[in-house]
Amino acid sequence: MSSTARRLRVIVVDDEAPARALLREYLGRRAGVEIAAECANGFEAVKAVTELHPDMLLLDIQMPKLDGFEVLELIEKEIPVIFITAYEEHALRAFEVHAVDYLLKPFTEQRLGEALERAAGRVGAAKKGSVPLEDLAMAARPEGAGRYLERVLVRDGSAVHVIPTARIDYIEAQDDYICVKAEGKGRIKKQTLARLEGALDPARFVRIHRGYILNVERLANIELYAKDSRVAILTDGTRLPVSRAGHARLKELLS
Q1: What angle do CA 63, 204, 179 make, to 5 degrees?
Q2: Of 79-83, 110-114, 138-142, which range is least confident?
Q3: Are 202 and 145 in contact (CB under 8 A)?
Q4: What are phi and psi of 227, to 5 degrees?
């Protein structure tokens, strides 16, 4: 990258201090790169991206609390990402979310430079065929057959709410958004109900209506409201509509 090129503002995200120090050393020798921030965890990364609007991320995958895929799910903009990890098995998932490159630790300064050159070509350009942000929840799903989301992440400004799926009462569709109801609180997330439904455990969550997904553990009773119309009564007294198709799904699940 030449010194006359536009400076590339980068955020470095890694929970290991030595790894951040090495990246700082490598990047410091590149005249066209500016480190906008260093983050030690995913929460710091989401906040930094929201406030600083960097050109790209150097993002570790395996981190406590929020991993790299979950960080991307919470960032409400498309941004070039170079994933950095010590675990080769994450490579396929990295490219499924259209990462610019994938660096396997330990990597050389030359290899990092190649990745940065590739990322510089993405900055300011529209990414054709990129994955919709709501689809990143699918990539963040735990690996392995039969595994489903164990938590739902909701961003509120620069804050992040982590909601274990076991605590969810129900999820309501609100146009292109959903409202996740858990323990008396509702959190709004930009995602469609259909896409989230595919990531939830079907043994616990059921689509009872086109606008509602219910955690069946919260179901207290089903009442007939009118001909072919029913209402689900939750343990806290909340009443939710149940369609004919939704009632059939409930019967099948509970039988």
Answers
A1: 70
A2: 138-142
A3: no
A4: -60, 125
* Three-state secondary structure call for residue 238: coil
* Other Cβ atoms closer than 10 A to 192: 14
Residue whose token pair is 């409202």: 179
Q: What angle do CA 188, 123, 24 make, to 5 degrees?
A: 90
Distance CA 140, CA 199 (A): 10
Residue 170 identity:
Y
What is the distance, to the nearest Å, from the Cα of residue 207 to the centroid of all Cα atoms in its chain? 22
Asked if the bond preceding 106 is cis, omega within 30° of 0, the reply is yes
CA angle 209, 211, 212 (to 5 degrees): 65
The number of beta carbons lying within 10 Å of the beta carbon of residue 63 is 22
Cite the beta strand spans of the chain per DSSP E: 8-13, 33-39, 56-60, 81-85, 101-104, 151-156, 159-164, 168-174, 177-182, 185-190, 205-209, 212-215, 219-226, 229-234, 239-242
The predicted model scores a pTM of 0.65
Q: Which helix (H) or strand (E) holds 49?
A: helix 42-52
Distance CA(116)–CA(110), nearest Å, equals: 10
Residue 221 has pLDDT above 60, yes or no: yes
